Amino acid sequence: LALAASLPLPALAQKKIVLGFSQIGAESEWRTANTESIKQAAKDAGIELKFADAQQKQENQIKAIRSFIAQKVDVIAFSPVVESGFETVLREAKAAKIPVILTDRAVNAKDDSLWVTFMGSDFLEEGRKAGRWLLDKEKNTKGDVNIVELQGTVGSAPAIDRKKGFEEIIKTQPRFKIVRSQTGDFTRAKGKEVMQAFLKADPKKINVLYAHNDDMAIGAIQAIEEAGLKPGKDITIISIDGVKGAFEAMMAGKLNVSVECSPLLGPQLMKAVQDVVAGKPVPKRIVTQESVFPMETAAAEFPKRKY
Ligand code: GYE
């Protein structure tokens, strides 16, 4: 008996941390890899995950967060589909004393006491990297460079910042012109559809496509081929994420460069959840480290890619 009393409590008797996570949807290869990373990391960490898919709708995310509050989960984490409109529900979580972690995308609320930490990529920098790659590629050419842009989801942090960062760089040389810009909602289907419209409007003038994610670029590649043009040659294509589909397109010579944006946020999210529950301090901002993969590096990098 004395011996039994000195043994540590069996795992089952310890209270499992409960995490409520509201995911945006399944709009891209990036997003599916992000969901897998979170589910796997929760399992590995022994955290009970309540996972809700919002199907790209903010109202569904707000509903999910309210239901997590009602269920009194230990921590709420979510990837906000758009930047604005979450303040009210975040205040409700704060009033219920449930800590909130933002993953992947930011909100634009002024009161930063509404979340404990925001982990994810620097989208502004990703846009700048895309712009710098293009300026470098064209450094020995002359004349106008006409760019069409496929934006991500309207009002989302990555769409806003990837546009801003890219523009910041290209506007240093006025011959680089964004001639058309429209949202493709981060999906292949929409990327293809909008690219078809771009090509119809100006079939000869497009030199470059800048897509805010790989999926839209992959959709657009189909549209370009169907129009009888060579993607990667007749039109230079730049996109962001670095998913396997992009590496395949690069190895086929159809995509020129993909700026990396890692979806593998699961392990660091679980670490932050454990720290928050244990009352340990967590940094207010955790930035993902990332590189740029031009087409020439694709074959060597492909076997190492994890998403
Ligand atoms: O680039 C895109 C996804 O928020 C960084 O969302 C993420 C973006 C990613 O749908 O593919």
Automatic annotation (TrEMBL):
Alphabetical list of InterPro entries matching this protein: Peripla_BP_I, SBP_2_dom
Similarity comment: Belongs to the bacterial solute-binding protein 2 family.
Principal location class: other
Source organism: Caenimonas terrae
Tree of life domain: Bacteria
Parts of the chain that traverse the membrane: none
Residue intervals of the Periplasmic binding protein domain: 20-280
Name this protein carries in UniProt: ABC transporter substrate-binding protein
Keywords in alphabetical order: Signal
Localization per Swiss-Prot or TrEMBL: Cell envelope
Gene3D superfamilies associated with the record: 3.40.50.2300
Pfam families tied to this protein: Peripla_BP_4
